[in-house]
User: Fold these one by one.
Assistant:
Number 1:
Amino acid sequence: MLAESYTAVIARGEDWFDGSTTEPYEASWAREAIIVVRTLEAGTLGAGAKAHVQVSLDGMRWVDEGTRLDIKPQVDGISMARIGHFGHYLRLRAEMPDWT
């Protein structure tokens, strides 16, 4: 059987703050997912910014899956994660450095 793929943008051009999340993406049909985070603007992130992959069975209650991406602060900085066995819904939760 020939494998199929699908690309979905779940957030673009949004300001992320500590605790921000992307829209949930229903992917119960998929065996695996590759998540890519790319920084679009310079000077918007400090060192230590991270994105945590979260999973949900119903799209309302979320738990950290365990995968964490270091968000690169430079323009076009790219981080990637491969996810498998994730259930029904996926999203990212931002962890930003404390600026206070």
Number 2:
Amino acid sequence: MTGNSDDRQAQMWAMWCHLASLAWIPLAIIGLPIPFANIVGPLIFWVTKKEADPFINDQGKESLNFQISMTIYGFIATIVLVFIAVIYFIVAGVAASNDGGLLLLAGGVIGIGLIGLLAIIGIFQLIVVILAAVKAKGGYAYRYPFTIRLIK
């Protein structure tokens, strides 16, 4: 479904399907970092309400697909970060005996850049989730960019 909904209750539940992906933020703040909370939150809302309205079903799947996609992208970025860090430390160890000051600086720039990439992914995720929730609350179906649609 790519249409709209006039049902206020369906709009509210669809909105919560999107916002539930942000549950990890307050949980992390209070010291309860739950792995995959960004997926578990929307999953709970979608599974319990998907039969109630096609709009909830559509937006719940959209939210889940986006959160799964962002999790995959985050894992890939982390693997790349670790891989580059390991390679860097191997090269830096060899270069340390030959005045590796410039190499150390380059490694810091690469590390900050990759950590910055993870931060950009997180900020992007926050912005589009809020946009999706606002659209769903208004009765409009939202399609997240860069989403792998695993759940059909």
Number 3:
Amino acid sequence: MEIIRISEDFGRWDELLALILSSFAYMDGVIDPPSSAHRLTPASLAQKAHDEIAFAANKDGRLVGCIFLKPEPGSLYLGKLAIAPAHQGKGIGRRLLAVAEDAAKENGLPALRLETRIELAGNHATFARWGFTKTAENSHPGFTRVTSIEMQKRIT
């Protein structure tokens, strides 16, 4: 498996969108509000990759994972971490996380930050195993209840 930086000439936006939607499909009917992944298009993914730092994991010529990173004051935000369902649990997420840690160091940022939906306890546990700690609870616009938690990992 190789991890590549997604650049302007990537050209596999339809495949990338399919990867994200398939890996986020288990959330449908579980989280409220629905995942923002449903609003993505190949064009918006290309713009997102232009505006952020994006990586894709390839295995045997197929996309099996991706991560989008956005520098913020004091941290590097991890978004759209997606692993193809058939490839989950095989270390691809950890490999992409290592790339994110390297990117944080290269950008002089001392922490990684992410948000995960309150209903996704399995994700909370996975991120905790990867060294993230809960730092905040948030609500999406229009909601009075907590809809997501924020987690951070300090980079040493």
